[in-house]
Amino acid sequence: MFFFFERLVGSTRRTSPAANSCRLTGSGSGWWRGFPVGKSCVAGSRSFVTDRGQEGDRRPACDDSCVTSSTPAAPVGRPRSGARRLPTASAREEILDAAAELFAQRGYAATSTRLIAETVGIRQASLYYHFANKEQILAELLEATVRPSLVYAGELADRSLEPAAALHELVRYDVAVLLGARWNIGILYALPEVASEPFARFRREREQLRLTYRRLAAAAAVEEPGITGDLVFGLVESVIGMRRDLPVLPPPEQVQRAVAAAALRLVGSAGPPAAVIAARSEP
Fold first, then answer.
1. What is the pLDDT of residue 2?
2. Picking from 6-15, 206-215, 234-243, which range would have the lowest pLDDT averaged per residue?
3. I want to staple 220 with a disulfide (CB 3.0 to 4.6 A). Which of 36, 108, 126, 267 is the partner?
């Protein structure tokens, strides 16, 4: 729900969703009953997003025995073969970005770890320092397309919004993640490889997001909440196809509004809830 490093390298939450290896824990009540709403961030498991706080500085206080040097440390490893793709990003983020571009444009099967490393400008051995294999890279990219929206759904649950208002906000955010991704990695959801074990966590989290839409549809008292929730979920993910097929995509904000309005019509709501309008108008 822009971002990419988050539905990849950069993402939009509200114009920037968080996905720094966050897993959801706990449970709530109301429309989110049974839905994990707490968050615990695990270093190294997720890709790029905001850090949820950093550990304090553990360096010892300097006394008379400390020795400082004005000479900067020499860089470790061999120099890159060319200019950096993302000057301010880490090597891990650059690998993910390069892989996302190659997977989306060349195809997953046609992309090797050697090609990814060459695109980044590093040795293949350096890539393996960050990722064990190509499957791990794709899994992290795919998880980044759904986890930010799961985290945001938990935040909405904490705000105790009415079901229609929560649905409206989640749809807008989810669409923002998919549109804000630097590369359209969602087109790889249907790959046969995604049904295998390395992608089990992605499939599980994507299913959790689908079930969240079903719960919101049920809370809105629609006659067929399962079907309606799945229709809303599919409506949100239809923006992946729009990115692939349209030569020029409408402005993201316009797409967000249109998809959120269509989702409300599916659950029988005429327009954005008053609570949402009021919240957006506040300074």
1. 41
2. 6-15
3. 267
Decide if 157 is inside a domain.
yes
Contact by Cβ (8 Å): 186, 237? yes
With vertex at residue 196, the alpha carbon angle to CA 35 and CA 3, rounded to the nearest 5 degrees, is 55
Percent of the chain that is helix, strand, coil (3-state, to 5) = 50, 5, 45
The reply to whether 76 falls in a domain is no
Q: Does 66 or 232 have the greater pLDDT score?
A: 232
Q: How would DSSP label each residue in 132-169? A: SSHHHHHHHHHHTTTHHHHHHHHHHHHTT--HHHHHHH
pTM here is 0.72
Adjacent-strand bridge partners of 22: 41
Query: Pseudo-torsion of CA 115, 122, 16, 270, nearest 10°?
Result: 0
- Cα dihedral sign, 201-203-208-212: positive
The C-alpha angle with vertex 188 and arms to 183 and 190, in degrees rounded to 5, equals 155
Task: Determine, yes or no, domain membership for 69.
Answer: no
Give 81's pLDDT tier (boundaries 50, 70, 90). Answer: low
pLDDT, tens digit (0-9, with 9 covering 90-100), for 171-208: 999 999 999 999 999 999 999 999 999 999 999 999 99
Q: Please name the amino acid found at residue 215.
A: R
pLDDT at position 21 is: 40
The CATH number of the domain holding residue 214 is 1.10.357.10
Q: Please state the domain count of the chain.
A: 1
**Can you give the pLDDT at residue 221?**
84
Is 58 contained in some domain?
no
Q: Residue 220, Cα to own-chain centre: how many angstroms? A: 26
Query: What value does the CA radius of gyration of the chain take, rounded to a whole number of Å?
Result: 21
